[in-house]
Design a protein that fits this description.
The chain has one domain. It has 12 helices and 4 strands, in the order αααααααααααββββα. It has helices at about 10-25, 30-35, 35-50, 60-90, 95-105, 110-125, 130-135, 150-195, 210-235, 240-250, 260-270, 300-329, and strands at about 275, 280, 285, 290. This is Cobalamin biosynthesis protein CobD.
């Protein structure tokens, strides 16, 4: 079996992809020329939403249509990913095919862009509240117009913690488990949830399958993300691994999401913050639980502390993956 498909090579594939993404991200000229896999998957989901999700249909019929749409998206994404692997395997020798597949897989995690966007919020807050609101509006869906400076900082740190889990740890985990098809299937599921998995009148039925499936596939990554953040707290000055553990045990299960509470509570407990809590989406107030029992009056310096913890957690994750790759390979 080619290295590009061998189960023993998938951790190595994930590690190479992670290194490529850390070095160059997803280049802007490439995005301008061909878009991004998420935009391609999103276009398919939007088309299925228009075609299958009809207001006149019953709740049960729309729910069934959502199941069908999710299966179609996963089948198409997985099929394309497997075809890419097979084509590269046929065209290139083993090690070269592995690297070529890793270049494609590097489009799945978003560690570099997450760092850039969260850092921009800290820089924006330094320039003023309006700039901070504009920057955080690029990474959160809540109503940023009602946020004060502390609210902007909390939103950025919450997004950093949650996206560390579902934007980096999860696609890396599934790539390490099942290669490019595994990572691509996860990305399709996560994109479907972000587009149609909300409990709105239009998507409560149609997006049910996407939301539940995303909860399932994010379960291992959310726990791993909390573990990496807790481990990072052991070496980051001023952070507390014990505080992270206490916050996870006390608060993670109280989050509105079965997964987001794990990295958010770990981040909050490690740094002595109190994150989440009530927030506004559009005109609606979401009365959510608080993660952590520390300070809520946060600022740009606290965002940068969270970024430091995040970067160390990335390093720990890469080191563990390297050990797994060597052990299995």
């Amino acid at each position: 079996m080619s290295l590009a498909l061998s189960p023993s090579s998938t951790p190595t594939l994930a590690l190479i992809a992670l290194a490529i993404e850390a070095a160059v991200g997803y280049p802007a000229p490439l995005y301008a020329a061909i878009g991004h896999p998420v935009t391609w998957i999103g276009a398919v989901i939007a088309a299925l939403d228009r075609r299958l999700n009809h207001d006149v249909d019953s709740f049960a019929r729309r729910k069934a249509a959502g199941v069908l749409a999710l299966i179609a998206v996963l089948a198409l994404t997985g099929g394309v990913a497997l075809a890419i692997v097979l084509v590269l395997r046929a065209a290139l020798p083993g090690a070269a095919a592995l690297v070529a597949v890793a270049v494609v897989a590097a489009s799945l995690p978003a560690q570099r862009s997450l760092d850039v966007h969260v850092r921009a919020v800290a820089d924006g807050l330094d320039a003023g509240l309006d700039a901070g609101r504009r920057a955080v509006g690029m990474i959160v869906g809540r109503n940023t117009g009602v946020l004060d400076g502390a609210g902007v900082a909390r939103a950025a740190i919450e997004s950093l913690a949650e996206n560390f889990s579902d934007g980096i740890v999860a696609p890396l985990f599934w790539t390490a488990v099942a290669g490019l098809p595994g990572g691509a299937l996860y990305k399709a599921a996560n994109t479907a949830d972000s587009m149609i998995g909300h409990r709105t009148p239009r998507h409560e039925a149609f997006g049910w399958a996407a939301a539940r499936f995303d909860d399932l596939v994010n379960l291992p990554a959310s726990r791993l993300a909390a573990l990496w953040l807790m481990a990072a707290a052991l070496v980051v000055p001023g952070a507390s691994a014990a505080g992270a553990w206490r916050a996870i045990r006390r608060d993670a299960g109280g989050h509105t999401s079965p997964n987001a509470g794990w990295p958010e509570s770990a981040m909050a407990g490690a740094l002595g913050f109190a994150l989440a809590g009530p927030r506004v989406y559009g005109e609606s107030l979401l009365d959510a639980a608080v993660m952590g029992d520390g300070r809520r009056d946060l600022g740009a310096a606290d965002i940068r502390r969270a970024l430091t913890l995040y970067r160390v957690a990335l390093g720990i994750q890469a080191a563990v993956l390297a050990v797994v790759a060597v052990a299995i390979g």
